[in-house]
Structure prediction request, 393 residues.
Amino acid sequence: MIGWLDLAAGASGDMLLGALVDAGVPLAVVQGAVAGLPVEPVLLRTEQVTRHGLGATRVHVDAPPSTHHRTWADVRELLGGATLDDAVRERALAVFARLAAAEGRVHRVPADEVHFHEVGALDALADVVGVVAGFAHLGLAELHATSVALGSGTARGEHGVVPVPGPAVLELLTGLPVHAGPVPHECCTPTGAALVAELVDVWGPMPGMRPARVGSGAGGRDPVELPNTVRLVLGEPAATPGAPVVLEANIDDLDPRLWPGVLDALFAAGASDAWLTPILMKKGRPAHTLAALCRPETVAAVQRAVFAHTPTIGLRVSPVGKVALARSQDHVDVLGGRVGTKTARDDAGRVLNVSVEFEDVAALARERGLPVKEVLRAATAAAWARVPGGEGE
Prediction:
């Protein structure tokens, strides 16, 4: 099963909790995870509400008031002592690590010196642990999401008036797709930003899927501009027809010795082709454009491979047209060994090209102690000899 989050109205911990519960995650699952925190009792309750006439679930987090400002070290210790599944604990720690790093960059202090204010409160702790536990319960193969609406204007926080989008929210969502949206106030909270940044695998429109369940989680506001909800669509993946896609990134800070491994990783992820083009970037810096041609169904996996194996934080995505000849694979026996072949034909079935697998050629040359060019010539001749007309038509 896969999931898709519609974040047109932003994201917050309670909205994500509401979407999960509305989509069928038992409240007891979320409450059980929250109850594992070694803190004063925190209770969750649901309320059925409407936003612009559409039904949604709002999850209220009832926690004792607290003025305790936890540090990142406090949160690590608290989660370390919680009664949680290891996977939930590790993912919740990863969410707070993102928050600590973002707050540290905003306030220009080391992450370990960050004091969580609103984010360190009991309701925020419950939001993070509850949302992580809810998605763990679903066991999704992939979570997709739209661009995140952030809002605009100003808001009042612990330190006074701050601009919207909040500085920490922008730090958390650096490199990810965002937009202001039509609502002139905060749409995405730091907790919501950290959760989607950690949990979402693929960003973009709804993927090809067969919807099975839909959950709507409501926020506290009911603005006139749009329904203040997060929608979670769950279902099985379904292939969708579409054009091939080229993913591209300009990269100037990768050790060149790593490039062969990067290309291998893209092919392993399903790229139809991948290549490098030398370029000059600003200030005359030498760099490469990394490009990968993908079928629609492999775009997500290749995208993840690019981000995992290179330092880039963004990709250009371009649909392209493609014309391909029909191809078949076979082999020829030559010089006491076997070499793979590929034959390409036009629409009338005429053979237009025959090629041999160079890696097979090189391996046979090593095995026989022969020059590679001799084995290549013999294998190519043998491959063409099997085509009607000897050398093709």
